[in-house]
Amino acid sequence: MAGFRDALLSARSPGHVLPFRRTVRRSHPPGPHAPDRIRHHRTIFISDVHLGTRGCKAESLVDFLHRNHCQTLYLVGDIVDGWRLRNRWFWPLAHSHVMQAILGMIDNGTRVIYVPGNHDAFFRSYCGREMAGITIQHEAVHETADGKQLLVIHGDRFDAVIVSARWLACLGDWAYAATLQLNELCHAFRRFFGLRDWSLASYLKQTVTNALEYICRFEEAVAADIRARGFDGVVCGHIHHAAIRTIGGVLYLNDGDWVESCTALVEDARGHLEILRWASAGTAILPASAAGAADDLAAVILA
Question: Which superfamily, per CATH, for 37-286?
Fold first, then answer.
């Protein structure tokens, strides 16, 4: 992954500017959350972007980053998919635009903290260092505006599949990629006939009992560990399932992904946390709070 590291550093060098073109599609009249409105947040958490894969919704993420400002941005793992890039290089211009958007936020005063995941684990050897203005850490502690101590981790170490059987994780990753390709065909078919978007991956996630059990076991394992460590809550990613829940007195927050659901976790100046789902035509705010859950969002990834 030295090539990606060099690309990141060269993007930061003076005089190196990646071309950027932004296209905004508006399918509805401007409203309270119309795409032209810039939203300001204290903190934004995003994860599971999977740059380097065809399923990555890079254009939507670039649009989100340009229309949502923050003091601190947490990159909560699997931002780059090293597993795929090792086998086949895929890096369209839109993926470079994501990098450029993040570096632009740094130039404008945003603090960026990167907590690598399992798909971008090659960055873990750089933990404790700063690269192109991005601080890289194994895990981070975030204090909300109302004083809660949240541990920020990717979450892959709680996945028994990752820990005990790497080959099975790779098989799950391949199956998920195939599902996403079918999902894109489904989207194209429905758009051709003027039907609203419907996610095959999300449908499979909601209807397969084993997937739902996996999510519950993962969330409970994370919450138990965080409770034992004395934190008020946790922010993680990994399973591509955005949620805000209270589990055994621990605030469990998952920021979702930018492969299927295009979701981010945001904190306002008062410490209120909510999940935003970003669409090509703008943003819809999903009602989520410390007492509620947003459990109908993305697809499950077993890697």
Answer: Metallo-dependent phosphatases (3.60.21.10)
